[in-house]
Structure formats: structure tokens, C-alpha cells
Amino acid sequence: MPKAIREVYGTVLAELGDINEDIVVLDADLSGSTKSAIFGKAHPERFFNMGIAEQNMVATAAGMSTVGKIPFVNTFTVFLTSLGLLSARDQICYANLNVKFGGAYCGMSDALDGASHHATEDIAIMRALPNMKVIVPSDAASTRWATKYAVDNYGPMYLRLSRDVYPDLYTEETRFELGKGAVVREGSDVTVIACGLLVHKAMEAAEALAGKGVSVRVVDMYSIKPIDRELIIKCARETGAIVCAEEHNIFGGLGSAVSEVLAYEGCGVPTEFVGIQDTFTESAPYNELLAKYGVDADGVIAGVEKVLKRKK
């Protein structure tokens, strides 16, 4: 039975805490929501509720890392990547410290709280920070890998985590690698490069389009920074068209990262962007928001149809 991404993250953190006493976890008074409370219950002596003081929380984590601890800082994505940004930039990334960021409730997944709680610019912010790695899990297995990878490998890392339940996409035996993406569906007419929830929406769209005779390749670009340049170029050359799909502003996120690769490598193929069209979002049930802002299967289908017209 699929689990919420945040639930998997909290559970894996607690399990890793059993075997690595250097792991410490900090939260900004939202541990019940971020699920860092699971770690707190298992290891109360290494759990710190910093209150609603995100910049101070990140700064405290920076200090802990200098004495050999592996701090994970947690709160809603929008607060972690805005209120925590100054400390993330000037203390952690500048000094290349070993601090991990667990951004819960990414995209519009905190649906009913509206624009103030929606994170639609976080990928752009975090991937622009020198030394920061950016990982976007798309199911339980990739979340488990990303959390363990963050513990086992040195340096600042941002894990983009959703409030929602994602269907299982991989098995627990799947091998992941930083700087790589995964082809989760083969196709020859167009490639949809997606991350997070939009991988699943792309799979739905590909299935629907197959009934119309359109062959869609779907790539899960779970590593945004570093990104899989080789796979992007391969897909562009083999399918001749790219659609980037993300629950994020169309500026600065996955689509921008993919376009940078295409531009640098001279792969001038038709490209479309499925994402939030440079606007603030609003309060509503999650599925209604995804539909309104075009980040659902229908939005991906529309993107594919547009790019195929240009390909011809």
C-alpha cells in the first residue's frame, strides 16, 4: 500500500538514527506534519523543536555540522527555502557544510492553505545555491534512497517532499544514483521529463495518448542538481521533442534546468513546459488545484499535443 512521501521520510530517518548516532533532526514546530516527529519519538535526545524560527534553525544546524553531526532541518518547503534561505546560503552552502534540508508539503500539496503555504519556486531557489544538491523523490523507494543518500554523502542537500501519497513506481531493489534520471516508460515520438508527482501524471498521460497512437517516453528526473545531461541529450536526439512537467513555476525549475542542457549542447528540439504559469496559486482541494493550474495528466497531454504540432 503506497504511503505519503513525508511518512516514508520520517520513518527512514528514525531507522537510520538507530545505526548512526551522528544524525540530529531539527524542526520549526511542525514535526507532526513533516513527520520528523517519528525520529523525535525514537531518538528524543537528538531531536530539537526550534519553534517558528526557521533562519535560526538552519543556523543552529550549521553549527552542529561543524562538530561532526549530520543535521536534518525540517519544515514546510515554502518556509524552509525562504525564511531559512539566508542561513542556507551564507552559512551552509558558503562553507559547504554537511546539512540536509527536508522540505515538506512541496508544490501545492498544502492545498487548502493557499499561496502563502504553497512552494512553487523552491527548486529555482535551491538549485541556484553553490554546493547544494537537489533531489525530488517520486515514490516510497526513491524517498528511502534519497534520505539514506543524504546521510551517507557529505554536503548540503535539499529533498523536495510532498504531503501527498504517491503510487509506487519502483521496487526497493531499484538502484538510484545522484546525477541520473530514470526512463520509466519507453516511447519514440516525444519525451516527457518530469519530477515528483508529475512523473505519475505523465505516466497517466502516456497511457491515454497510446490509445491515440502517440508513443510517449517518460523520464523521472529525480536528481535535479546535478542533472542527467547525457539522458536529456539522448532523449532529445531519439524522440525529437521534449515536454518538461513539474509542480513548480515554469521559470527556474526542472524545465529551466533541462533547457539549459539543451541550449549548451546545441540540441534545438521543440520543447514545452507543463507547470504553474508564473502566477500565485490559491486555496482549494488538491486535485482541483492541479487541474486548474494544468499540472495534471490533462495538462501533460496538452503539452505533448502542442510540442508534436511544432515537431511536424
Briefly note the CATH topology name of the largest domain. Rossmann fold
Mean pLDDT: 97
Amount of beta strand: 15-25%
- The CATH architecture designation of the largest domain is 3-Layer(aba) Sandwich
Number of domains: 2
Number of helices: 13
- What is the helix content? 40-55%
Can you characterise this structure?
The strands form 2 sheets. Strands 2-1-3-4-6-5-10 form a 7-stranded mixed beta sheet, sandwiched between helices. The chain is built from 13 helices and 12 strands. The protein has 2 domains: 5-160, Rossmann fold; 182-311, Rossmann fold (3-Layer(aba) Sandwich), CATH 3.40.50.920. By secondary structure, the chain is of the alpha/beta class. Helix content is 41%, strand content 19%. β8 (190-194), α9 (197-210) and β9 (216-220) form a beta-alpha-beta unit. The chain has helices spanning 5-19, 31-34, 37-42, 54-65, 77-80, 85-95, 122-127, 140-152, 197-210, 229-239, 254-264, 286-292, 297-311, and strands spanning 23-27, 47-49, 70-76, 100-104, 133-135, 157-160, 182-185, 190-194, 216-220, 223-225, 242-249, 271-276.
Task: Record keyword descriptors for this entry.
globular, 19% strand, 2 domains, Rossmann fold, 7-stranded mixed beta sheet, alpha/beta, 5-stranded mixed beta sheet, 312 residues
Précis, in short:
With 312 residues, the protein is of the alpha/beta class. It has 13 helices and twelve strands. Helix 1 runs parallel beside helix 8 and helix 4 runs parallel beside helix 6.
